[in-house]
Design brief:
Number of strands: 15
Bound molecules: guanosine-5'-diphosphate
Protein name: GTPase Der
Pfam families: KH_dom-like, MMR_HSR1
Oligomer: single chain
Strand content: 15-25%
Order of helices and strands: HEHHEEHEHEHEHEHEEHHEHEHEHHEEHE
Strand order of the largest sheet: 2-3-1-4-5-6
Function: GTPase that plays an essential role in the late steps of ribosome biogenesis.
Shape: elongated
Largest sheet: 6 strands, mixed
Distance between the termini: 37 Å
Subunit structure: Associates with the 50S ribosomal subunit.
Family: Belongs to the TRAFAC class TrmE-Era-EngA-EngB-Septin-like GTPase superfamily. EngA (Der) GTPase family.
Helix content: 25-40%
Length: 454
Amino acid sequence: AEFAALDAQVEGLEDDAGAVLSQPVLAVVGRPNVGKSTLVNRILGRREAVVQDVPGVTRDRIAYDAMWNGRRFTVVDTGGWEPGASGLQGAVAAQAEMAMSTADAVLLVVDASVGATTTDEAVAKVLRRSKRPVLLAANKVDDNRLMADVASLWSLGLGEPMAVSALHGRSSGDLLDAIVRALPEAPRDGGEGAAGPRRVALVGKPNVGKSSLLNKLTGEERAVVDAVAGTTVDPVDSLVELDGETWRFVDTAGLRKRVHTASGTEYYASLRTKAAIDAAEVVIVLLDASEPLSEQDLRVLTMVVEAGRACVLALNKWDLVDEDRRYELDRELDRGLVRVPWARKVNISALTGRSVRKLAPALRTALESWDRRVPTGQLNGWLSELIAATPPPVRGGKQPKVLFATQAAIRPPTLVLFTTGFLEAGYRRFVERKFRERFGFEGSPVRINVRVRE
Ligand code: GDP
Ligand code: GDP
């Protein structure tokens, strides 16, 4: 039952969708052949699109990362969407509807050499209702003779038409300036974080071996480790040299003093644990391999997952583990660690020092995953194939469609799927599992959020 409880807690967390997007989205709409793809490639400088050209793989035009003047944003080519509406006009209008409700700004592309068609007018009518900014690009203005035709596009009621030539690059800088102005300012990605040593928390239930491990890692003779620069009185953190790198072990004052929590203070112990996890980037969760996995262990793991920290599992007291215990332990871990199958397990003994040097590489791997971002184009190339092979289950008679996705954040890696309907937790777990099969992310939680267009 306790395992189910852990599951439910983490489940609740997943349902709490809606991470702040660190990267705003621009959707590009318009009739076929007006030059949307050409323009998208122009906006991208064709960097990412090239990555996508895998022979034998049908490549939908979906979503890519773009950057202009240091501002990153995601470009979505709605030409890749199949809205199911019948007739060209209906289809393009439906794309515009979806664009309006998913993107932060919309770019309507019109072919200036043709002028505004009835389809363009219908789409403009839809877009005039948009609460988000809408930009109008008059494309295929390869030379100045078309400027009069450009002016006539004011009639679409979307403001000033910007004359561009996607083919020749005319005014693409001006267009990008306007796009970046229209998009909301993005909150910074997890950023590079504070410089200096990576922050590690050492947590686990009482008597699991935290003090012993810290002492082993810092050299047994030195009870007090190097004080962190700048803190002269009672430094709470320890700087520890592991595998040629300095790490900052957070909140270790209690461990060094070997202040052991008396009974009844479990609540405070858990607050301390929580504080240490919050202060860290990566957490070493110590488990006592010689004893059955307990509810307390699972609570600590839940805290780590909820806090979104990278994680390494250290199975301590391995010197006490015999053949029989090993067999039992495997089964306990299979059952107990279902929510953290991605965490690396290192079998150690703080007492003998066995394998403690395997911790540093595991920490590094976990942090690399925690910091990692999959480019939008690569993500969507993979996702569109996954969804084509295994579409989300029908709900209320409707088949939810995933329009596109971006990895909106790192630390922890967070995917946002833009959909036309709710995706069940089971399907999101499936997406996560497949995502890990394809991209790895060992040692880090990965969050999957869903943004249903309203
Ligand atoms: P989409 O269907 O809207 O994505 O349009 P494409 O990007 O596939 O372009 C359709 C056609 O228009 C292609 O043959 C492009 O080479 C051409 N095209 C795109 N932009 C321009 C432009 O600025 N000038 C001219 N002359 N042709 C263009
Ligand atoms: P803490 O409460 O998590 O800081 O745990 P301690 O480091 O104080 O360890 C609790 C007890 O477990 C002490 O008696 C340690 O000597 C013992 N211990 C710690 N690590 C190991 C280990 O790897 N093997 C064995 N056999 N005993 C250990």
